[in-house]
Amino acid sequence: MHTLTVSELAAGLRARKFSSIDLTLHFLGRIERLGPELNAFVTVTADRALADARAADETLARGEGGPLTGVPVAHKDIFCTDGIRTTCSSRMLSSFIAPYDATVVARWRAAGTVLLGKTNMDEFAMGSSNETSFFGPVRNPWDPKRVPGGSSGGSAAAVAACIAPAATGTDTGGSIRQPAALTNLTGIKPTYGRVSRYGMIAFASSLDQAGVLARSAEDAALLLEAMSGFDPNDSTSVDRPVPNYAAELNQPLKGLRVGIIREFFGAGLDPAVENCVRAAIAQLQQEGAVIRDVSLPSLPLSVPTYYVVAPAECSSNLSRFDGVRFGHRCEQPKDLLDLYKRSRGEGFGAEVKRRIMTGTYVLSAGYYDAYYLQAQKCRALIAADFARAFAEVDVVLSPTAPTAAFELGAKTSDPIAMYLNDIYSIAANLAGLPGISIPCGFVDEGGKDLPVGLQLVGPHFGEARLLAVSHQYQQHTDWHERIAPGYA
Amino acid sequence: MIWETVIGLEIHAQLATRSKIFSGSATAYGAEPNTQANLVDLGYPGVLPVLNGEAVRMAIRFGVATGSKISRRSIFARKNYFYPDLPKGYQISQYERPVVEDGSLEIVLEDGTRKTIGITRAHLEEDAGKSLHEDFHGLSGIDLNRAGTPLLEIVSEPDMRSAREAIAYLKKIHTLVRYLEICDGNMQEGSFRCDANVSVRPVGQAGFGTRAEIKNVNSFRFVERAINYEVERQIDLLEGGGKVKQETRLYDADKGETRSMRSKEEANDYRYFPDPDLLPLVIDEATIEQVRATMPELPDEKAARLVRDHGLSEYDAGVLTASRELADYYETVVRGLGGQPKLAANWVMGDLAGALNKEALDIAQSRVSADALAGLLARIQDSTISGKIAKEVFEAMWSDGKGADEIIEAKGLRQITDTSAIESAIDDVMAKNPGQLADYRSGKDKLFGFFVGQVMKATGGKANPAQLNDLLKRKLSG
Amino acid sequence: MSLTRTQVEGIAHLARLEISEAQMPVYVDSLSRIIDFVEQLAAADTAGIEPMAHPLADQVQRLRPDAVSETDQRERFQQNAPSVAAGLYLVPKVIE
């Protein structure tokens, strides 16, 4: 049952092959058995899951409900869930009970999904390996010595290990796409503004976007549609109709203009990863896609630009955690300053503190123009490069990450090395563009097969095209169907 | 050395919206602590601001009224600092591109001179909560009901040269925002607050001296006192060879002095940057035109009309238009009377103002309505009662809440205009006072007043004064 | 080192973060490396480029109608608060 895709589960539920309660018990059992070794969940909501499942079964029994009714899912622990602990994998929020549902949570709930629990993540989504979590690192189902990627590492590991059929993620610089690539999943980050950010604990507000980690493009289409759409509670949410993504999956590849980003096939890219991506390009060409070389000369600026913009916004976003109204508060503060400094010093982990301080510095008097303003201008250059490219091609293609999953601890002492993991994914966030990562092969590392992902980025609101291209590719390949050994 | 004072004011006017600037919480004053603070106001994780359109329209009204430029595109920024009454650790404000820029206002000083004060900018921002310091065993309590209340911060040019000018400007803005119905102007409740930037320089010096910013002045009187205190402090300092420190100072109304604010001593680095949760505020021409079309008559226009059409002095017109409610009251009286603007003005500024002052009431709380006052003045106009009797009737109206006619009838105050009745009263008085009569007739003119008094006493004050004068003169001269 | 220890202490204070004596050198080192890394932006030719604060350039701020939509939920919201009394959030004395 657990290896079925969401579309298959939905069909099975409708055909009464199994009930939502059956499914939910099955997945809760797997979470209990397999969850701890992966450390994928921060909170398992068994009671809530069973209540949701019961309600879903009643809906289905009445012949009602939609394509997601009764399907169990998991939420990244960055989304507020009413009455349920919402931690952002931080000590700061380790006992925080959100008093409201994020819009994404409410929408998936309204669609009839069953909430299995909240998944582990990098603390406040700051990381690319899921090693910064207060609740410990998440392990990659393909090799437990390795990271699942981050920051949506718990969601990725849970879906890759088939202990949840699908999960939400958030992506500020690659946090959906990079873990999807490292765990053999399909992960989509939609256009900025497509999905409401309300109730999603902010890391960098102008870059954050919610999305989906799933086992196929078809699943991603169903799940993305259910979470998308205008939300009056988010000023940056875009009021624009949501397409029926599932209905548009069958657009043919023939004639599709695919731009290969020259700048993303250079130094730093693991040759074995490159081979997989090149093979996928050949496959697309064989199916009728027109392959073109495109150059986006400002892309090398994207990582340094991101590491000014994102910390700047985070330094301000995380000021609300001050030990006064919610969150961790130090023992016996001797005065107000002590309350602030110790509550925040104790509540935040090292990487979060590092980013807050970076952001504080780049915004401070005398440095704002040189760093923050300059970064915003570089951001404009990057966006302009994409706009030029999309005048010539329909989508641009690159590897999702420069290497396959690396070992735990390999990069924790060098922040720059860690930051460069997102070298290919960050630009889409800076330009607000939709991006998807899909499985495109495996590399052998020490006798283990490690998945490789390729990334497609489209113009604003081009999600339907990205999903269709991915789906067509998945019709001709079976990389995405492979499940980590021991979890099938 | 002769010193010149330079003052600029930053006025915070709470906008009179029903809900907060970025959330749907109520803004009503005086609620139980933290009962009007929702997730957005509390800065809860994950919540986002959405801008109140009415706050924007109110800012535009102010801009139009002050001849300012309304920015077609303005930006919300975050001002970052930690303070317990600031839930998010930043205040959403406008920094580089405010919604209103470059306006001005004309003030009239007591000697009648006019002066134009520049308005640098007015921007939208959110208010902070309040810290309460009493009764918590050495702790402070935080109430966030006020957090997120919309503010219009109105920043003047450093154009004022005395505390009086500053007060005239402050009062003018106070009048204006109430005319525009964008702020209730209540200084006690903190919905109209003022910070003063004060510096001094030797007369003739072009550059400005170092300024101090005085905070927490919550009445016109205190603003004047605080500025005057601060000017003297700075002059003493400079004349004693010292230097003025650029700092924030708090006005202590009990001691009547300003003192350095410890909490603000540390140099702040607010790290302003555009708020990524809010998009650029774009205001189109149509919106501005719509606001323009619904603008009320402004105080200056109204005063000019009262001078022109009612024949009032500029001073009287200024007093009567100081608040929209007072002007409305006055105009209702004139309408009720069908004219007689000077009579109406004298009464509104005289007996009515006196009665209100005595009980510290607003015009809106007046015990005598404008229509009732018009009813009283109509009786003066048709000679039913004299002006003097009218004062008595007014007092009765004020205390009993009854109409003028009812009181005149009940107390029999109707004026005696019957010549024979007055003549017989005069005859009586003359008969009873032969000695005074003889003295008068032998040249003691001053006794005329005595006879007027006696006749008035005899008629209960109801004799028509003009008639009495004529008749008495004739009779006394024999 | 592009940042001095004094600078990092200043930043930590501005950000209200307590950094232990032992950890301070680690932050001085890593923050310096990050700042050195982002320094490369200075070389980019951005003359005449309008800074980009938002990913969607054509979007403008939407306005909300002025309506009260909230009811009092103080008790619920204060369940997450570390210290409250009489409906107020308590903090060490605020000195003005």
Give the tags.
heterotrimer, A: 488 residues, alpha/beta, eight-stranded mixed β-sheet, three-stranded mixed β-sheet, B: 478 residues, alpha+beta, Arc Repressor Mutant, subunit A, nine-stranded mixed β-sheet, 17 strands, elongated
> Mind summarizing the main beta sheet of chain A?
8 strands, mixed
What fraction of residues of chain B sit in β-strands? 15-25%
Which stretches of chain B are low in confidence, meaning pLDDT under 50 for 5 or more residues running? none
Count of discrete alpha- or pi-helical segments spanning 4 or more residues of chain A = 15
H-E order of chain A:
HHEHEHEHEHEEHEHEHHHHEHHEEH
| Shape summary of chain A | globular
Give the quaternary arrangement of the chains. heterotrimer
Tell me the domain tally of chain B.
3
Helix segment tally of chain B: 15
Beta fraction of the residues of chain A? 5-15%
Distance between the termini of chain A: 10 Å
Poorly predicted sequence stretches spanning 5 or more consecutive residues of chain A: none
CA radius of gyration of chain A is 21 Å
The helix content of chain A is 25-40%
Structural class assignment of chain A? alpha/beta
Number of strands of chain B: 17
Q: Find the count of extended strands of chain A (DSSP E, 2+ residues).
A: 11
What report would you give on this structure?
The complex is a heterotrimer of chains A (488), B (478) and C (96). By secondary structure, chain A is an alpha/beta fold. Chain A has a domain at 322-375. Chain A contains 15 helices and 11 strands. In chain A, helix 8 (271-286) links the parallel strand 7 and strand 8. Chain A is globular and about 65 Å long. Chain B has 3 domains: 3-290, no CATH class; 297-411, no CATH class; 419-476, Arc Repressor Mutant, subunit A (Orthogonal Bundle), CATH 1.10.10. Chain B has helices spanning 53-65, 163-179, 220-239, 285-293, 299-310, 314-320, 324-337, 341-358, 370-381, 387-400, 404-411, 419-432, 434-441, 448-458, 465-476, and strands at residues 3-14, 51-52, 69-70, 73-74, 77-80, 90-93, 100-108, 114-126, 130-132, 139-143, 150-156, 192-202, 212-217, 247-252, 257-260, 273-274, 281-282. Chain B has a 9-stranded mixed beta sheet with strand order 3-7-8-11-1-12-13-14-15. A 3-stranded antiparallel beta sheet of chain B has the order 6-5-16, with no helix packed on it. By secondary structure, chain C is α+β, with helices and mostly antiparallel strands. Chain C has a domain at 5-42. Chain C is 30% helix and 9% strand. The mean pLDDT of chain C is 95. At the A-C interface, helix 9, helix 10, helix 11, helix 12 and helix 13 of A face helix 1, helix 2 and strand 3 of C.
